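Re: the 152-residue chain
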Amino acid sequence: MDSFFKSILWSQFGASIDMLENAIRACPDALWTGSRFWHTSNHTLFYLDFYLSNPAPDPIDNFVPPAPFTLSEFDPSGLYPDRAYTKDELLIYLDHCRKKCRAAIEAMTDDQAFAERLLYTMRHVQHHAGQLNFILSQRIGSAPRWVKRTQP
């Protein structure tokens, strides 16, 4: 796959991850556990990790998130994890996902059908980063700014 396309894809996907990170970092502690903020952050990272781990359709059986995270996101009843994850735990998970994403993009070849899944996943991350920024704007009166592109 063309390195120019890979650099563009990483620039924009990385920016989506940066925006999620900025929202997580900007969330006050009182809002973190008293709302769905931590859960939306976890949900976003869980599915980012899942889609980066499994390029084949519906590969649920092969996925295990890193500790302390669970498979609760797969529960059809909407079961929450046993406890609220801390910001630090989710920022470590975010770093894990950022590295995994960059490696997946670098490893892409022309014959992979992985590009559409990456774009779908990027849209999912950006959707939830927008939700979290909206919550911050509503609750604390400010939110992190738009990230044009990630750092190389």
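Residues 114-140 form the longest helix (27 residues).
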